[in-house]
Amino acid sequence: MGSYRVAAICLCCFVCSCGAREEEKEEVLQTVNNSLGYVAQSLTKKEYLAGDVLSVADIVVWGAIYPLVIDGTSLPDELSSLKGWFKKVTELDQCQKAAESLLKGQGPSVFKAFLQKLPAPVLVSEKSLSNEQEGEDTAARLLSEEDIAAATEAWKKGLHDVPKPKPQQQPILPIDGEKNMLITSALPYVNNVPHLGNIIGSVLSADVFARYCRLRDWNTLLVCGTDEYGTATETKAMEEGLTPQQICDKYNAVHTAIYKWFNISFDYFGRTTTPHQTKIAQDIFHRLLERGFLLEDTVEQLRCETCQRFLADRFVEGICPFCNYDEARGDQCDKCGKLINAVELKTSVQSVCKQSPIVKSSRHLFLDLPKLEERLEKWLDQSLATGDWTTNARYITRSWLRDGLKPRCITRDLKWGTPVPLDGFRDKVFYVWFDAPIGYISITANYTDQWEKWWKNPQQVQLYNFMAKDNVPFHSVIFPSCLLGVEDNYTVVNHLIATEYLNYEDGKFSKSRGVGVFGDMAQDTGIPADIWRFYLLYVRPEGQDSAFSWSDLMLKNNSELLNNLGNFVNRYTTR
Ligand SMILES: *[C@@H]1O[C@H](CO)[C@@H](O)[C@H](O)[C@H]1NC(C)=O
Ligand SMILES: *[C@@H]1O[C@H](CO)[C@@H](O)[C@H](O)[C@H]1NC(C)=O
Ligand SMILES: *[C@@H]1O[C@H](CO)[C@@H](O)[C@H](O)[C@H]1NC(C)=O
Ligand SMILES: *[C@@H]1O[C@H](CO)[C@@H](O)[C@H](O)[C@H]1NC(C)=O
Ligand SMILES: CC(=O)N[C@H]1CO[C@H](CO)[C@@H](O)[C@@H]1O
């Protein structure tokens, strides 16, 4: 069934010409041709796809290729068996009726609007669906004769002739007329020890990309740091009997040590609890306020009377109002991916004390996303067309826009956060999702006082954001909306690289249940960091969830790293 699916996805390109580049179209043609050839081949031996009687497979495939070959004449002659089958299925009474009700006499253009909303076809999925042999063919086809000749030439010359990377100036700054790469890895929450999924999801992926960029001699700045504000920290502080600041100091050191051990090449690893954060976040806030992009409204908030405090959405659990998943968090449902307001949960309990909270109202400030939507879409059109966005990032972003944007509350009744600098709200702080992405900027400001050369320089800087997919909406919709609304020449994301999830053996990583491998434990195993790095990159959840497995780690260490890569390098270096 795999190749049918690819065919169905690729057909979109024909019907809607959704901006696929020329070589992509050729690739698509090839893919569809192969898949159709495959279907035609199987139809030479039998009447219908699954045998001699019509089955659901016929209907599905017929429906998928219908937009392309509405009258069957566009099918090449080599595919005569497919042609005959298509005609036969099309003539079925039910299929005729279905087609008529859909087309309403307008022809294939009726599919356009629908198909344009689908994620852009990814050709990589062809590789993962087919077997390894075909995968290699695809890779080979992407290289031109010249590429191969150049590679052979370079190989013959040996390592001495490889140009040395230019020395790095300090601080690293963009340079006129050169390629300037600003790379961020999602800021890890300070109250946790990161697990392998967190490490490959953003930190290690960003590291590898940054190393590549430096080898290419591009001006590259990789920044990250701990995200330290919010209730998560307050709660952890209560648990451990420390102040929030002490918790941040303690876990910032834990994170720093783990990434150092994994040899992550951050140019600067900072934190969000700095005066720079306060200054920049408040400046962004003031500019949004002056430009009329903030609204005031009353919010129903959950409050725990037992603990005497308002509850952050993340600390409430209940039933998702959209998909009825019964372990949804108050901010987001892990099952359907929708963002939630905690008060919308059907029956909820606080995740710490397990008491049911009460609803209480207070005045808050909202980011007027509907008012920013137009400029966001304009910018997104351009960024998606010219940048590297992973399929999941494109898909999540599109579905957010399709659902329409609503105003989002940016303030919270908490203490541990960036204070809101406005009368009437001075006892509140910024909500973490508003505050945290500003951390990229303030952390850079903590690295160099010339930070604006990176962050207010969209003409000369390419911004790459690395993250796991649950972080996509904040980076593709909400934060860009803020930066565009501020009208201060900010650098807005050009490339968004999101991973799926890494599972642990057959389940999820879970600190509370002690399941999984955490950064500090990886170190204690005695297995060197480079083997961890290799294996995590090998199982990187790129197009779909993947899993960490101990036995697979041993296997890949021996087969891929030692036998294949090791022997290859060995043969080269001992020539
Ligand atoms: C399409 O596939 C058929 C075999 O199914 C092959 O004969 C033909 O050359 C292919 N056409 C293109 C354009 O690749
Ligand atoms: C860490 O990476 C650097 C290159 O960025 C390399 O020179 C160094 O040997 C690595 N350290 C370890 C312990 O692998
Ligand atoms: C934005 O910044 C760049 C580089 O600093 C500058 O060349 C450009 O003129 C600025 N654009 C605006 C609209 O301020
Ligand atoms: C990985 O392979 C090396 C070389 O054979 C071996 O020394 C090491 O013990 C292996 N590590 C693991 C975790 O299997
Ligand atoms: C260069 C710079 O601004 N460094 C600051 C980074 O943040 C820490 C913590 O707030 C300060 O102590 C540094 O002075």
Automatic annotation (TrEMBL):
PROSITE patterns: AA_TRNA_LIGASE_I (PS00178), GST_CTER (PS50405), PROKAR_LIPOPROTEIN (PS51257). The keyword rRNA processing does not apply. Residues 1-111 form the GST C-terminal domain. It comes from the Eukaryota. Gene3D superfamilies: 1.20.1050.10, HUPs, Methionyl-tRNA synthetase, Zn-domain. It catalyses: tRNA(Met) + L-methionine + ATP = L-methionyl-tRNA(Met) + AMP + diphosphate. SUPFAM superfamilies: GST C-terminal domain-like, Methionyl-tRNA synthetase (MetRS), Zn-domain, Nucleotidylyl transferase. Keywords: Aminoacyl-tRNA synthetase, ATP-binding, Ligase, Nucleotide-binding, Protein biosynthesis, Signal. Residues 1-20 form the signal peptide. It holds the Pfam family GST_C. The keyword ATP-binding applies. Belongs to the class-I aminoacyl-tRNA synthetase family. This is Methionine--tRNA ligase, cytoplasmic.
